[in-house]
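User: Let's play a game. I give you a shape written as tokens, and you guess the letters that built it. Ready? Here's round one.
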């Protein structure tokens, strides 16, 4: 297989037919030996049935139905695990990223001799709050993550097989795919992409905040180390204050207790203690989940065109794979 186009489905009923048509046109301009791997991430609408219906006449489609919603990042990794192409083009199915970009990415990966060409926005789309919060989030990541995460990077990217094989070796249960793209290494280059803003995002402010915390906790030990150094500074400050109070008592005797200073000290130290316990709790929760060794996703069915399914070689099934490929 020369080329695999990998995408996910979640509330994609309005766009999936157009996406498949555009993807086929873009891929056909490069090679006739291609597949479109579509992962249904427990979409509540009729995205899956639409895709299966198209697959009845389109032999290039391979549709993976997950048993429930596992999340965008895990669905993308599942699609890459089932992609067979020498090159893999990862893209969202909502058409904010045009499948026609494949031609430009294809030229770039060969002209620059890279393993990965990833898309990024020169300027983050959306309102002022969205752009500002994004800039702050990336600044925080730059401080605490030892690897440089490209700013405003997008899902769309073209990858060589060697890189994809290395990427899918990561087996964390709780993944932030942007981190994995970076720490996998290889030669990577960015390509600016114009991405229109549809007026709203599927990621709420709270969801973006939790993703930031997950991104930090999944790859960086800096917050844990910072607790040690902050504790040292508080201990040193407390020692200086204690010495000053002892000196004052020696010179002036016992004065009237300061209620304000006592209350401020209690609230400050209490707040810092709770904050540090919370940071440790986040890391403990990650350890708790990882020790369960759960699979990325659970697959309910794999649908493929009869003509293609009959040509597939038999292979051992992974524990989370269905026992049979369902012909469309």
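Assistant: Ready! My guess for every position:
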């Amino acid at each position: 297989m020369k080329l695999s186009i990998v995408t996910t489905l979640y509330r994609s009923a309005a766009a999936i037919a157009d996406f498949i048509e555009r993807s086929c046109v873009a891929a056909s301009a490069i090679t006739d030996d291609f597949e479109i791997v579509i992962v249904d991430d427990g979409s509540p609408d009729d995205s899956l049935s639409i895709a299966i219906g198209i697959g009845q006449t389109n032999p290039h489609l391979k549709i993976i139905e997950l048993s429930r919603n596992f999340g965008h990042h895990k669905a993308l990794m599942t699609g890459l695990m089932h992609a067979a192409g020498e090159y893999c083009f990862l893209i969202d199915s909502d058409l904010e990223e045009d499948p026609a970009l494949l031609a430009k990415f294809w030229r770039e990966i060969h002209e620059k001799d890279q393993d990965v060409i990833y898309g990024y926005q020169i300027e983050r789309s959306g309102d002022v709050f969205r752009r500002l919060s994004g800039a702050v989030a990336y600044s925080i990541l730059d401080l605490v993550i030892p690897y440089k995460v490209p700013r405003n990077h997008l899902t769309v990217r073209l990858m060589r097989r060697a890189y994809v094989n290395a990427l899918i070796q990561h087996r964390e249960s709780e993944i932030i795919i942007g981190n994995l793209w970076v720490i996998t290494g290889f030669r990577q280059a960015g390509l600016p992409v114009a991405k229109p803003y549809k007026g709203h995002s599927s990621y709420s402010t709270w969801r973006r905040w939790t993703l930031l915390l997950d991104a930090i906790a999944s790859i960086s030990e800096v917050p844990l180390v910072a607790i040690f150094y902050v504790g040292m500074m508080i201990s040193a400050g407390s020692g200086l204050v204690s010495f000053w109070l002892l000196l004052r008592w020696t010179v002036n005797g016992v004065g009237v207790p300061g209620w304000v200073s006592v209350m401020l000290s209690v609230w400050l130290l209490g707040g810092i203690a709770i904050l540090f316990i919370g940071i440790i709790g986040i890391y403990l929760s990650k350890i708790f989940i990882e020790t369960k060794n759960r699979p990325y996703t659970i697959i309910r069915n794999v649908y493929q065109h009869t003509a293609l399914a009959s040509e597939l070689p038999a292979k051992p099934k992974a524990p989370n794979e269905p026992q049979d490929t369902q012909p469309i």
